[in-house]
Amino acid sequence: MARSNARRAPEDRRETEERFLDAAERLLISQGYAAITTRGLAEEAGANAGLVHYYFGSMEELFLQVLERFTNRLIGRQRLLYSSPGPYLEKWRQAMRYLEADRPYQKIWWELQAMAWNRPEFRPRVAQVLGAWCDAMRGAVAGALRRYGMDQGELSADHWVTLIAVLNEGIILERLSGIDRGHDELLAAIDRWLAAHERRAARGGRAKRGRGTHAGA
Known about the structure:
The protein is mainly α. It has helices at about 1-30, 40-45, 50-55, 60-85, 90-100, 105-115, 125-145, 155-175, 185-215. α1 (about 1-30) packs across α4 (about 60-85), α4 (about 60-85) runs parallel beside α7 (about 125-145) and α7 packs across α8 (about 155-175). The protein starts with a helix and ends with a helix.
C-alpha cells in the first residue's frame, strides 16, 4: 500500500499543477494578471491555496508556465502549417485566420509582457516565447523570398520575420485596446501584394518548364 501511495503522489501533484495552470489560463483571459489573487486562483482550481507557492514558487512563475504551455500547443500547429506543401500565400492566409481565432492566447501574451515590463528577471522567458514564434516561420519566409526572387534584396529573411512579428504584435495590442482602424485594409493590401508575387512566380515556373521541354525536344 505504501508503495502504491508513493507512485500515486507524483501523479496527484501533476494533476493539481495542471488544475492550477488551467485555472490561471482562464483567469488571465477574464481578469488579467494584476487582478488574480492566490486565494481566487485556488478557488478557481478547486485546490489548496498553499500549494500555489509550494508547487510553483510564485504566482509569476505559474503565469509564465501558463504562457509557455499555451505557446507550445500553438507552435506545434504553426510548424505543421509552415512545413506543409503549397504556396506561401496560402500559409500567410491561414496564419491571418489564426490571428483572428487566437485572441484568448493573445490576451495572455500581452498580459505577461506587461508583467515583464516591471520585472526584468522575467523578460528572457517572454523573449523565448517570441523567439519560438519567429523560429517557426523563418524557414517558410526564407522559401517565399527565394520563390519571389527577393532573397538578394535589402531585407533578409530574419528582417522579414521581425517585420511580420512586429506587425502581428501591433495588431494584437491595438485590438486588445479596442482599436482596429486600418487593420483590414492593411492586411488586404498585403494579401494582394503576396498574390501578385505568387502569380509572377507561378508564371516564371511555367516558363522555365516550357523552355526545358523545348530544349529537350
